[in-house]
Amino acid sequence: MVEVIKETFPFVSVSMLVPAVSALLVILLKERYAKAISIVGAGLTFLISLVVLYLFDYSRSSAVQFYEEYSLLKEFNVKLALGLDGLSLIMYFLTTLVSLVAILWSVRDRQINTRLKEYYVAFLLSESFLVGVFTSFDILVFYVFYELTLIPMLFAIGIWGYKLRLYSAYKFFIYIFVSSLFLLLGIAAVSVQHYFQKGHFSFSYFDLLGLSHSEGIGIFLFLLFFIAFAVKTPLVPFHTWLPDAHGEAPTAGSVVLAAILLKMGTYALLRFNVGLFPDATIKLMPFMVAIGIITIIYASWMTIVQNNVKRFVAYSSVSHMGFIVTALFLLNYEGLRASVIEMFAHGMTSASLFMMAGFIYNRLHTFNMESLRGSVKFMPVFAIIVAVTAFAAMGLPGGSSFWGKFLTILSAREYSYTLAFAVLVGGFFSAAYVLYMLKTLFLDVKEESILIHFTDIRGFKLVSFLFLMVPIVLIGFFPHLFFNMFDGSLSYILRHILGLE
Amino acid sequence: MELQQLVGVIELPRLVLFLPELIVLITAFVLFTLELALSKERKKIILPSLSAIGYVLALMSIGVSAQFKGDTFYGSFTNDALGSLVKIFALIIALTVLAFAGRYFSSKRSFYGEFYYMLAFTLLGAMILASSYNLIIIYVSLELVSIGFYILTALLRGSFISKEGAFKYLILGGLSIALASYGAVFMYIYAGSIDLRDIFTYQGKDYHYLVLGIVFFLIGFALKIGAVPFHFWLPDAYQGAPTPVTAFMASVGKLAFFIPVVRIMPLVQEKFSLTWTLTVGVIAAATMLYGNFVALVQKDIKRLLAYSSIAHSGYILAAVAVTKDIGMKAVIYFLVVYAVMAAGSFFIVAMLERAEGWENRIQEFSGLRFNLPYLAFGFMVYMFALLGVPPTVGFVGKTLVFMALSFDQLWWLAFIVIVSTAISTGYYVRLVVLMYMKEKEKDVVVPQRSYAEALSLVLLTVLTIALAVVPEVIWSLVAPASETLFTR
Asked: ipTM surpassing 0.95, yes or no?
């Protein structure tokens, strides 16, 4: 049984309410206050998350801390059950951090010039819903937040996006909504299984952990859950919505989408697929690892041939998600650690890469890779940021993605050297596309007459980059700061749920 | 001696069980009389206010009648939790219809006094239909509701589509009642009783009569609720009817027509349960697929919502296929909340129709957010609710349907629900995208907005979200409604 620790002050629900209330204020007050209110709201939430990080008991990270529950429907045991265990904690921190960065970035984004109120409402609400996703310990409430995050993103892409925004918004919504209907069926079926085994319906995560499914039902339910999360993550046959959504979304939208929304998929795979159906997980593990490796390699190839820099970054995200899923389904300690640290690390680097694309677009008004040649030449600060991010994304030691990739290879080696080699090949391709991008930005020369007028990065945009650079370097050099958060949770999953090791 | 025996059998009806209906009945007759007597100017004020008073009184009297459970009128009228729940929502929606009707008709430059008493009679029919097991009473109240709807649909005498819709409805509606009563005859032959409870608990030998009876009865009701392949009247009638009437038909009409079917659910015995599941399941599958596919290509908003109504009949029928407690709860919840969503969305269309040059084309929704921000927001809520996006009632309804289907392991039907919802994403999201993400094409101004309209819309929109976020409120009505029927 998972240990539950209650807290007198409802930190989690407050960090959901603060952005929601700020959104309400943005609606009610005049448009010129919108930016200030949203920065304060998101900043306050970030501060709350820092307090939570400070108060969190790292020695018992497998326990659900800061737990609060409010009953919604007694008969079905639906509760608004919020809490943080180690795994939730890091995702929660990622959410508050990246949401703040997205809002800070938007303040000076020239692309955002109409309907400011709605824009900030969308981002504040999506922060609120995302906190809900990562802290819910009731599977139906999780689903509610999971779906709710779609709506602000639909609006962000559809209203403030680029040329093909309506097409992309449709595609994004339909893909995710339809796939999550399978999840809804799965959730309903799991609660019915609880009825058959325990005599009453329940949607509580803790209750559902105690179920044991027969082989057929277990695999069936696993797949119902998996379809939704595979589309969300995305894994390769289901990834086609992502380049479109990213290609057309406004910069901040891409940032939230890549850094947090995709992590909902992998987080849920670990929390629900692995947690609720351990037998099916072990049975299906080889297929999942295979899908992960296919995703890495296929997406890396697709990345190299992209012409549009945002689609380039989008495909690189897909390949990183491939690493996360591969590592996750290797089902050993190093693998799980690799996948969770990579979730956070990829959140940082992909956000930073999308902001770079947005920054260059503001200067050059194009996403075409060809016309970006040599574009960082007269912007030394920006060049440093680009280099740090790119090398971190590539997996260079000292960068954030190094631990993810290194530990994945290490855990694959426990099975066989062939598998480790396959992951290594994936890592090689991901290095290839990052180097290609660096070459384009730094080494290719363009007519200097256009470039010389570029002003370097400063102000709000520099601050928002710094918010990402600090964790990138921190993970690189002091990974244990982050591993400490969730190691306990992972070993609990491994030992008590999967019964391995 | 014989006379004494006869007198001894007579029992006084327990009118307290019948109180809400009685009040609506009196209201209807008063309205009818006043409509004849008053001058036109007076009617415009007095008839709606009197109807409103009557409905509010009836709503309050449910508080009294719900305290007493049981049968009256020799077992032909049953007052139970299910009936009370249906009546509460039927009366609330009827009240909101009143708020929209006056302005709607005056924007069409007409006034129909008969609207008010026809509405009251139809409502009465719906309320009785929702609380009877007696085949004769079901037949009579079904006729009452249907005739009311025929007349209300044809109310706009000058309009061709109104008459066309009403005529189609009349012909197919007549057919449906004929079939349902034919089915009732077979059931009577089987059990020798006109009470559904006796019929289904009767252990007779001639099953084929009962099966035949159920099939005809079901087809009759399938016609009324617009299930495929008996749906042909529905889009025309919904499009042709004055929009507040359409709202009433889609909400209260559907609610009432479903209830006799719901009442059969707990009575279906083990022997027929497979027949029942398959028949209802296949009709449900066809209904939701067809409704959603055809809605995808509609250009008229009322027809789109009509096909979406057909599709929703399908979702609800899917849960009817599961003759368990959870299935019944899903059906009741979904029925009630669909009534709220449908009424709200048609009311918004009714308001938009008053705008100059509005033709109900879907393209006209482009940029509605810039013209009418509040109406656009309300319509977005209804679209997301009909689609089943949380935290709206449509989502809870779909969850319950999924729970019911996985309870009976009807995975094929569950996958058809998923596929048809996937199809429906296309047109619901398109409306949201049009309203919020396209530039406006023209100015849309709704003249003479009233507080009653605004209040009704706010009420329905809040219900659409609140009944899902705080489900305990409605669940305290839904759960007993289902459980009392199952424990009987």
From this structure: no
